[in-house]
Amino acid sequence: MSLIKEQDLGTPAATGELVSLEIDGKEVLVPMGTTVMRAAAIAGVSVPKLCATDTLESFGSCRLCLVEIEGRKGTPASCTTLVEPGMKVATQNDRLAKLRRGVMELYISDHPLDCLTCAANGDCELQDMAGAVGLREVRYGYDGANHLGAAKDQSNPYFTFDPSKCIVCSRCVRACEEVQGTFALTIQGRGFGSTVAASANEAFLDSECVSCGACVDACPTATLMEKSVIEHGLPDRSVVTTCAYCGVGCSFKAEMQGNRVVRMTPHKDGKANHGHSCVKGRFAWGYTTHRDRITKPMIRASIHEPWQEVSWETAINHAASEFKRIQAKHGRNAVGGITSSRCTNEETFLVQKLIRAAFGNNNVDTCARVCHSPTGYGLKTAFGTSAGTQDFDSVLQSDVILVIGANPTDGHPVFASRMKKRLREGARLIVIDPRRIDLVRMPHVEAEHHLQLRPGTNVAIINAIAHVIATEGMIDEAFVAERCDPVDFAVWREFIERPENSPEATEAMTGVPAQTVRAAARLYAMGGNGAIYYGLGVTEHSQGSTMVMGMANLAMATGNLGRPGVGVNPLRGQNNVQGACDMGSFPHELSGYRHISDATTRQMFDTAWGVTLDDEPGLRIPNMLDAAVEGSFKGIYIQGEDIAQSDPNTQHVTAALAAMECVVIQDIFLNETANYAHVFLPGSSFLEKDGTFTNAERRISRVRKAIPPVAGKADWEVTVALSEALGYPMPYQHPSEIMAEIAALTPGFAGVTYEKLDAMGSVQWPCNDAAPEGTPTMHVNGFARGKGKFVVTAYVPTDERTGPRFPLLLTTGRILSQYNVGAQTRRTANVAWHDQDVLEIHPHDAEQRGIVDGDQVLLASRAGDTALTAKISERMQPGVVYTTFHHPLSGANVVTTDNSDWATNCPEYKVTAVEVRLTNHPSRWQEDYEEFRESTRKIAAVAAE
User: Residue 851 in contact with residue 841, Cβ under 8 Å?
Assistant: First the structure.
């Protein structure tokens, strides 16, 4: 695909009645509220501009877009002048040309004349506009005051700031405010002394800048420029694809020189991100060509032996023969597999198909087990579908936003920027979180209520909120009567009105004052459109499924479903965790969330696949690991997951892996799980494959190949080869054929084709005959299950309790610059912001233990212990500590237990009883881990020789 610059219409679109006006003799019809500049662009008339861009509000500072309007004096700026019916505009005449050349001459007089060697040569708006206004000479010399000697700021690992080239158009400042909502940039000084400054005139790396790239995109000169472009030059072609980080699913243009990615630019037409991005998607793509990439298949007989590089055919045949041997010796159910939430829908569908059709069992699971499986269970029970109810743009119509157990600014930053925009416009915010996340208070955003509950008491708090709504007469009786099951509702109402669910009764458990709960409940119920957004702080609990159903109860009781601005919305952690669930990755479900025991559904798959599927659910991940330790589960195929780092109770996970006879890993790096593998099949990154991802709003977006697979095969091709070696052919020629099969077998995907996705950009399921262009808002006229189901959500305290040995509670989360287990982001310059996991501890708890900031401490639980660096933080409440899990040596999951959700086995990462004390050395696990890693390095070195 060629590099085609997206048209910039100068100012944002308007909505209103159409009006007619004349521009340079051309009649144009545009909505009322449109600027003259945008109307001219629509008419095909190009008005010179520098401070204007259609991603930002009109500003009117550069004075280059001057026009004449019949009947008006002067030369108004077209970017700030709104159209009027019958208006006659002139954009080109001698007077305007002279004025524009004079303005441009002043800009150029304080600008380096190094166009031929400038990194932006050929992609510079200042250069373009100088040509557009016909500037041929500059009358002013360089003897006077100027900014040409201003020093560059190269502190940011991804872009430079060269103030000598800055024209002070404020586009970067406005982008930081309007698009990102961080307010990290400002104009410092006045008049000729005006300069752009980051925070309090700090270096970019040290400032509040979050490196989202909005300022770089907005800059019309080479002032803010990607270091990759400075090094390699401008791209010559681009491919539109979808980001492979979080569940927002941002659309990007991979801009290329041959097979080299030069930069990733957020796609303005991306319906999930609307041209915005975060530091990970925008800049942290260098892992795709990192030297740690494994590009050759490898095998070994034992995990204590060196790897041997072999051909694809040898590796595939060896893996297949091992699986056959194990099944012949130990039975059909002695093997299984894990699909990946980082891989495409097509690849995930093939893995679960391979396990069901080629292995002949249902021992398939996915990492969604350990993050959002309660979402699937809870929302399906209440509404009939296992997915969020809205699109991301819905938040722009919310009046009250309830954020529960989520940290959007770190975990889902592009969506967070949209949420912050709505909050700045006047929406009101309630945060329920044990930790004071950024959203509680940040520039121009402040939560009206922060319910800082104790970890593990989510259900008690949601019941207390519902109790207030029920007992104070705030239930939407009409909605409930029309849309919900009356018997279930009556039972729930009797339960929720009981005194034990009152805020006063639950205050001692949750730690949240009753009056705060009551105020939050009244705001959510009576404040207008109420939207719930939640994350892993809801699902990763022993009552995760109960809590999801509790939120569904709350939304139904208040009528906050079935229209824009409301809903129950999970913020999915990984790029395709929604898709992995949709594709039938759970052991009890086929694609589309249909139970394996349903004979009609199973017959459809039997016919399509030419096999007879097992009607009994298979093993979940925890069951596979337990069975491996017990000796009955012997082989596993893991595509794109690192369970040795991501799953709880690390020592149990690694013991299970070590007990297996054949562990096959398909990944791009030798991850922690690969230390226990016998076969390594090189994977492909998102830039090397075709397919689709499904984001948190059910949006199916195309992933397009930008470069050839560095190991020679895309992930779907590897699965096809393994299946064929097992004796089950999969004769696909392209991922589009896999999607055609998915559509044929999955009702919600029945209308999905690559042709439709290419034409529309993306589509949200359900997409079928009833909704041929997809479904932005679910449950508009009724619930998928018929009547909404209220469920009694009794609060059951977790088995994980504090006591004299372990008096603190540990909860875990993510940070903006790193992603999941860090396999990708740790291999990028993002380590400049986060090179180790630290333990946040409240000053009171730290003082009691003699801990000061930066001390090494031992974090111990009933499951294990690890050493971390302490960070004293008032984000925490006394009695609660917090860490991230992005670095394997940190061993956060050595500490977490194997407690899990009652319905789905989702691990209880968010509640672990711990103690913290000073230490001066690593934990025993860390020492053993380092010794083991050193031995694997030596093994790898021997293999390389």
Answer: yes
Distance of alpha carbon 238 from alpha carbon 72, whole angstroms: 44
Q: Answer whether 894's CB lies under 8 Å from 860's CB.
A: no
Angle at 587 between CA 581 and CA 592, to 5 degrees: 40
CA–CA gap between residue 933 and residue 891 (Å, rounded): 13
CA-CA distances (angstroms) from residue 36 to 80, 85, 529? 8, 12, 35
CB distance 90 to 67 below 8 Å: yes
Least confident stretch, 25-39, 620-634, 679-693, 893-907: 893-907
Is the pLDDT reported for residue 645 higher than 90? no
Can you name the residues that pair with 366 across neighbouring β-strands? 339
What's the pLDDT score for residue 789? 96
For 856-886, how does the pLDDT look when each residue is reduced to its tens digit (9 = 90+)? 999 999 989 999 999 999 999 999 999 998 9
- DSSP class of 356: I
What is the three-class DSSP state of 882? strand
Residue 87 · residue 69 · CB < 8 Å: yes
Burial of 134 from C-beta contacts in 10 A (0-12 / 13-18 / 19+): exposed
Q: Are 291 and 276 in contact (CB under 8 A)?
A: no
Here the tokens at position 525 are 């119920």
Q: From edge to edge, which strands make up the β-sheet containing 699-703?
A: 691-694, 699-703, 762-764
Question: Token pair for residue 785?
Answer: 């299950």
Q: Which tokens sit at 552?
A: 């569904």
How far is residue 311 from each of residues 314, 316, 613, 631, 728, measured CA to CA in Å?
5, 9, 32, 31, 21
Using alpha carbons, select from 202, 181, 214 the residue that is nearest to residue 53.
214
- Phi, psi angles (nearest 5°) of residue 549: -65, -35
Is residue 19 within 8 A of residue 29, CB to CB? The reply is: yes
Q: Averaged over 18-23, what is the pLDDT?
A: 95
Cα dihedral angle (183, 184, 188, 192), rounded to 10 degrees?
Answer: -90
The widest CA-to-CA distance across the chain, in whole angstroms, is 92
Residue 941 has pLDDT above 60, yes or no: no
Interatomic CA distance for residues 892 and 548, integer angstroms? 25
| Burial of residue 693 (number of CB atoms within 10 Å: 0-12, 13-18, 19+) | buried
Closest CA to 929 of 682, 681, 678, 676: 676
Following CA atoms 548, 550, 553, 558 in sequence, which dihedral angle do they give, to the nearest 10 degrees? -100
- Residue 397 neighbours by CB under 8 Å, 6+ apart: 529, 564, 565
